[in-house]
Structure formats: structure tokens, C-alpha cells
Amino acid sequence: MAEGTIKRLTDRGFGFIDNGTGTDMFFHSSALEGVSYDELQEGQRVSYEEGQGPKGPRAENVRPI
Length: 65
Hints:
- With 65 residues, this protein is an all-beta fold.
- Helix content is 0%, strand content 55%.
- It contains no helices and five strands.
- Strand 4 and strand 5 (56-64) form a beta hairpin.
């Protein structure tokens, strides 16, 4: 599993993870495991699996570390 830091959360139920490569990874609240979207905070460390969405790469199975 990859790890990163939540860079940005929106009020529409999605956010972006800074994975340290200069490319942010998109995630949707439906991809969360073991945590609700409201419990997440910007700057929080998470683990995730890289997946593919209709608009490109996205994070799946996002979990707080």
C-alpha cells in the first residue's frame, strides 16, 4: 500500500492526497475504509491503493495511519 498526506478536502466529499511525487492523488469519500469523511483532516497521514477512475488515477481503500 502507498502512503501520503491529505493535501486538500472539499465540501463535496472528495479530496487529494500528496504522495510525495509531485502528483496529487484524487480520492472520493466512497473510497474510505474504517473512517468517515467528516473525521479526516488536512495534513493527516493515510495509506491507500492506487486505482483507476474514469478521469485517471485515483486512491482506493483510503485508511488513516
